[in-house]
Amino acid sequence: MPYTAEPWRIKVVEPIRIPTREERERAILTAGYNVSLLRSDEVYIDLYTDSGTNAMSDRQWAGMMIGDEAYAGSSSFYRLEAAVQRYYGYPHVIPVHQGRGAENILSRCLVRPGSHIPGNMYFTTTRAHQELNGGSFHDVIVSRAHDPSSEHPFKGDVDLDALERLIHKVGADTIPYVSVAATVNMAGGQPISMANLTALRELTAQHRIPVILDAARAVENAWFIQQHEPDWGEHSVAEILWQMCALTDGACMSAKKDSYANIGGWLAVRDPGLAEQARNLVVVYEGLHTYGGMAGRDMEAVARGIEESVQEDNIRARIQQVAYLGERLIQAGVPVVRPIGGHAVCLDAAAIMPAVPRDQFPAQTLAAALYLDSGTRGAERGVVSAGRDPVTGENRHPRLELVRLAIPRRVYTRSHLDVVADSVIRTAQHCQAVTTGLSFTHEPATLRFFQARFAPVPAGSADGVSGPYTALTAAQKG
């Protein structure tokens, strides 16, 4: 893919520094080998997430100056509402502080003990809210999504046969909605096709089951449809986004992703009864239904970010930057999820560290090793993120064991990505020799990947290596 010049110029810069090797060693030890617990000033290039870490435009910053901070009836809310209605098409818009606020409200409205919620691969907070309200998540994504080497362009598609079998097994009345992510974060930012979404809508309509979209990166999904799906190449990204949403009954949105904002989100639905129920709950958990946990200035930033997100040059530059990093790693032979997704490059930790047992967390180990090498922070998306089975208490073993390098929008230059690529290539080479990983020293009950702590598992090899980081350091110094 050609890498064209970015459709913006730099007006303000934020200084960053490179922590020394000694500083990084102290930092990762203090953080219990969990990059989630690193301080931001201990990180050089931060690819932990693309959520809320984007650079806002001059129009967004200007909009924040006119934010209406009225407690009730903020005019900023009505501008946000109009932007959602125009570009996403949902009539009822309930603001929340961020995407998981929408997940909480939706789950409290629809999920009950014994509910079954199918979806195209889980996301951590989405499933947590479903389970906390008594539901069970069922993965109905196509099998190719679990194969990191598959080049299928729409690995986010729903396996319609698997969904139909689930409906017949548990009964349509136990399924409050089908959860559809576009794109699929845990699969590496893989999109769902318009054809599959259309067929899903037809199937669920037969059983009167709503479809709820995770729209955090739906603009990126629309771009992939435009580029790779027949009959959609002549449509604008904005038109495709509208049509995607038209096939669903509502959406949870983290405006910290596609909308370039640092905070904010919304829940939007078509059913006025559900909207009324959600508005009542948002008052309890978020704030009044005309601010929902956001300041007026944040709603102004989100409204403008929605408009900017569907501009063709903006989304093209976004996808090209992610693809550039991915192609550099592919050319160097680093195992990554293919094809490259919309928001991140995902390293196949199981292939990079084949000798590390899954219950010693290869992705967690690789993320810490990458930080030690260059100060680059990624995010574990494997066994640690998957959590434990609530019945057996055993670690869940997702088929993908990944380190996600999520690229914030409009933040880093190509030079930064070259530093990351060089570090990943170097770290992947060293980690081939690592035979042990990490074990828990502290394990939270919920969403453990955020606050867990670990220690290296001593290796029992005859060469006397005491753990993965000793082995890595020795390889680097050698």
Automatic annotation (TrEMBL):
NCBIfam families: PRK13238.1. This is Tryptophanase. GO terms for molecular function: tryptophanase activity. Residues 46-422 form the Aromatic amino acid beta-eliminating lyase/threonine aldolase domain. Its EC number is 4.1.99.1. It comes from Saccharopolyspora elongata. It is an enzyme of class 4 (lyase). The lineage of its organism: Bacteria, Bacillati, Actinomycetota, Actinomycetes, Pseudonocardiales. The modification N6-(pyridoxal phosphate)lysine is found at residue 257. PANTHER family: BETA-ELIMINATING LYASE-LIKE PROTEIN-RELATED, TRYPTOPHANASE.
